[in-house]
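Reviewers of the previous submission asked for a worked example of the structure-prediction workflow described in the proposal, so we include one complete record here. The input consisted solely of the amino acid sequence. No template or homolog information was supplied to the procedure at any stage.
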Amino acid sequence: MNRPPQPSGDFVVLATIVRPHGLKGEVKVSLSCPGLERLVACKTLRLIKDGVELKKVTVIRSFPHPDGDAVVRLKEVGGVEEAESLRGAYLAVLEDEKPGLPPDSYYLDDLVGLAVATTAGENLGLIEEVMEGLANGVCVVRKGEKEILIPALKSVIKAVDLKARRMTVELPEEIDADTAD
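From that input alone, the workflow returned the following structure tokens.
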């Protein structure tokens, strides 16, 4: 998953409205954070379009869509016409209002830009993006022209230090930093 676009430095995008869903104002959204429950748990969601905060919104109904996206009903969206006008808008929270995560869990956008090194001290590069996989996320790490894909698994990621902006990994045998593309 690519780093979600940011309407401003103060906001974290949790979902992007894809299109209306149904006739009562529900919208189909593409989640920027894993787990619909994180979006629903936010009490201070803001609707952002074209870099402008339109209004605060509240999720009153939600369910996963079969294609991996989600459908949400926002209390403040009155019908299909208004939902249609929100295509491309973001559901976001202020950076300091992000819902907390369990220990050893991170927002994907927090990992982008971290320096990655092996437990032996070898510098692998910087995380360019985090892709959402079926079983787990995958960190795309780039150093010059060299790219390496590192699974976001506890068995591989040994330490994450967001303040120091670094991640320490222990690569499995099948992933060889010397032969990465």
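Confidence is low (pLDDT under 50) at residues 1-8. We consider this example representative of the routine output the project will generate in years two and three.
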